[in-house]
Amino acid sequence: MKPYSLSCVLVSLMMLSGCTAVEPDVFDGEDIVPIGYDTFSLHDHDGYTYGSENWSESVTVVQFMLTNCWDVCPTQTQDLSALYEEFSDYIGKDLEFVSITVDPWRDDQVALTDYMTAFNTSWPMVTVPFLNDENLSVIEQVWNDFGITVTLLESNNSTSVQGRGHTVYYDVEHTDGIVLVDREGMQRVRWTSDDWDLNGIRNDINALLNGI
Fold first, then answer.
1. CATH code at 129?
2. What 3-state DSSP class applies to 92?
3. Measuring CA to CA, which residue among 132, 139, 143 is closest to residue 165?
4. pTM score
5. Domain for residue 16, yes or no?
6. Residue 2 resides in a domain
7. 74-115 pLDDT, tens per residue?
């Protein structure tokens, strides 16, 4: 091979390598390769229809929680409440908060409203309007779209939910935390109890508000 030809090959390989390099993380939390989600319609704590259209052109903080959680959920809810107040000037225009239950069998409108009162929160908390296979499939699709796993574990020490679709005592094992969605409706960053950091979440919200 001629010397100049070898040089051309090396330059081409270097350019190709640069084009395929993995970009560095841009968020403090776990970066998500931008991905959307299916449209959905559920109900909020007041019984009003709440769905993906409520997030139109806003950065959205999506929490996955349950009212019967006594470890990470309360801490995360308290931290989100502080951020909600801090970003109050953006709420309703550029920024939305929402909590989606992973326990629709127990978390009806009354349970969610009581939880909001206990933690002094005012953003929507969302569940199914009533329990049937169709509504459960809707909220299960939301969990799947956001990478949330939900497993029911039988427990003798938990609350009975007879009358809300289950006749056994159970606990819920689930993926905790939040997902931040950008103005284009793309999931961008995830925070869980494994790396939860209030300052980092604040930074990521600001980054998305600034169009990153």
1. 3.40.30.10
2. coil
3. 132
4. 0.83
5. no
6. no
7. 999 999 999 999 999 999 999 999 999 999 999 999 999 999
